[in-house]
Specification:
This protein has 113 residues and is an all-beta fold. It contains no helices and 11 strands. Strands 2, 4, 5, 6, 9, 10 and 11 form a 7-stranded mixed β-sheet that branches. A 4-stranded antiparallel β-sheet has the order 1-3-8-7, with no helix packed on it. It is globular, with a radius of gyration of 13 Å. The protein starts with a strand and ends with a strand.
Length: 113
């Protein structure tokens, strides 16, 4: 069973940047496909970005060109670089291992002036 811990959230002004990190630990010897999801107040959770074990990526239309998902398999880390942030990006961001159905505890991102 893998455990996931996110970090890097915070308050940022519109147009700013944040980098979220997700540390994976546990019995799994290999970090498989990983996702970042988010949930804004009063809205359903949505998939933001995904990366396969081989590094192929996919993004929600709302973040394409602004967000970049990456991974460091040796360190068992997954990252989400978020640029040109908008108020509508405000949400709790979750790191997810879809293969095992494991979710992290989430990290709050607030974009506001």
């Amino acid at each position: 069973q893998v455990q996931l811990v996110e970090s890097g959230g915070g308050l940022v002004q519109p147009g700013g940047s944040l980098r979220l990190s997700c540390a994976a630990s546990g019995n799994s010897s290999r970090l498989a496909a990983m996702d970042w999801h988010r949930q804004a107040p009063g809205k359903q959770r949505e998939l933001v970005a995904a990366i396969t074990s081989g590094g192929l990526t996919n993004y929600a239309d709302s973040v394409k060109g602004r967000f970049t998902i990456s991974r460091d398999n040796a360190k068992r880390m997954v990252y989400l670089q978020m640029n040109s942030l908008k108020p509508e990006d405000t949400a709790v961001y979750y790191c997810v291992a879809p293969g095992s159905g494991t979710w992290g505890q989430g990290t709050q991102v607030t974009v506001s002036s």
